[in-house]
Design brief:
It is built from 19 helices and no strands. With about 400 residues, it is mainly alpha-helical.
Length: about 400
């Protein structure tokens, strides 16, 4: 095995380990193992002279001009004093996102070097966790191994499939990542695993991507069949229950209601501060200091605590709402131009649409998967024609 094989597989393998207890000293937004391997990434770039696109550099530079404009505007004219620890974290998070993006580019360029053994490895992990869910012999040992040594988690491996993630909803990003990278293999297995995560987001995303060839037809058949089965039987499946509750606002479960409140506040901030937003990392200051007062907390601890303690770490449950509320309308234009470019240039239009929906209802700042996929698609657009010319 060459050095190139070792490095690319080391980076690819590190992608999956985001919540190792050993990484607990890294800030919450950015603690994947992949981040600690940044020196290895630099070694790869230096040794193999991976080409940089000038358009990509210009695109990144434009984004940071937007960040600086919002920062200085709110420094002098903002309604609240800056909370500097959060602005520093947010700036680092932006840099990390672009790092993940370019890792995706090199994964595309060197996709033939990535070991095929990762695919059966993750299937094995999923099967082991299903085994523990049914409390078969040695289940307690498996649960202890994952919960205490492999995952620093809010959930329990004993009740859901987590792979190496913190909670079921985060597995959505990992599963879409695996379905894209191993699209030539059997992807139905990931749909089956997604059902065992008991996560609305993961289940819906997996189904959407699996039925990509005929989404409307298969989507209607699947949803209708599940609705009938769940309605006429006593089976209690939380994904179905939570989706049904969304239709009746008063019955929203606490997790969904928190998302509703945080995202509603994001929309209010965009309406009140449309041009420059409230500044990088400052959503939480306005959230707890101005807007949360207007909402019924329903005695939900996260909301009530945010109101009482004036939390400085709140975020909307939407990447788009978060970034637009903090950076303003120019960041919206930057996002739209980016997605229009990818959608227009790539043959993966259905995938781009799904990623757009994920970022609309997800906040994967510290998760490498979505950004790596976007980088992978960009690499495909940028270098596919070049590879074709070389082969000719």
């Amino acid at each position: 095995m060459t050095y190139k094989n070792i490095i690319i597989n080391l980076l690819f393998g590190a992608t999956f380990f985001n919540h190792l207890p050993l990484l607990s000293f890294i800030p919450q937004h950015n603690k994947p193992l992949l981040l600690l391997l940044f020196p290895i990434y630099l070694l790869y770039i230096f040794r193999y002279k991976s080409p940089f696109s000038y358009n990509l550099i210009l695109w990144i530079t434009g984004f940071f001009f937007i960040v600086l404009g919002s920062t200085f505007w709110n420094l002098f004219l903002g309604d609240f004093q800056y909370y500097y620890p959060e602005i520093i974290k947010r700036m680092i998070s932006y840099i990390v996102l672009f790092y993940f993006f370019y890792v995706g580019v090199i994964f595309w360029q060197d996709r033939d070097f990535i070991s095929q053994k990762f695919y059966p490895f993750f299937i094995t992990i999923g099967v082991i966790q299903i085994y523990s869910i049914f409390n078969f012999p040695l289940s307690n040992f498996i649960i202890n191994l994952f919960d205490n040594h492999l995952i620093s988690s809010f959930a329990s491996v004993g009740s859901t499939i987590l792979f190496f993630e913190a909670e079921p909803s985060y597995v959505a990003f990992l599963i879409i990542f695996l379905m894209v990278f191993y699209e030539k293999k059997n992807t139905f297995i990931w749909v089956a695993f997604s059902i065992m995560t008991i996560s609305v987001r993961t289940t819906m995303i997996s189904f959407l991507y699996y039925i990509k060839k005929r989404p409307l037809r298969y989507g209607f058949i699947i949803i209708t069949a599940l609705s009938i089965v769940m309605s006429i039987t006593q089976v209690n499946y939380s994904v179905f229950s939570r989706l049904k509750a969304i239709a009746t606002f008063q019955t929203l479960d606490p997790s969904t209601y928190i998302r509703f409140v945080n995202n509603s506040i994001g929309l209010q901030i965009i309406n009140d501060y449309p041009i420059f937003g409230v500044g990088p990392g400052q959503y939480s200051t306005y959230y707890s200091g101005k807007y949360l007062l207007k909402y019924d907390t329903r005695e939900i601890h996260e909301l009530q605590s945010g109101l009482d303690k004036k939390t400085k770490t709140a975020d909307p449950y939407s990447f788009f709402l978060g970034i637009i509320s903090e950076l303003g309308i120019f960041s919206l234009l930057w996002i739209l131009i980016s997605f229009i470019f990818l959608f227009y240039k790539s043959h993966r239009k259905y995938l781009i649409a799904i990623l757009f929906l994920i970022l609309l209802w997800g906040y994967p700042f510290g998760k490498p998967y979505i950004w790596i996929i976007l980088g992978y698609v960009y690499g495909e657009i940028k270098f596919e024609k070049k590879d074709l010319l070389i082969s000719l």
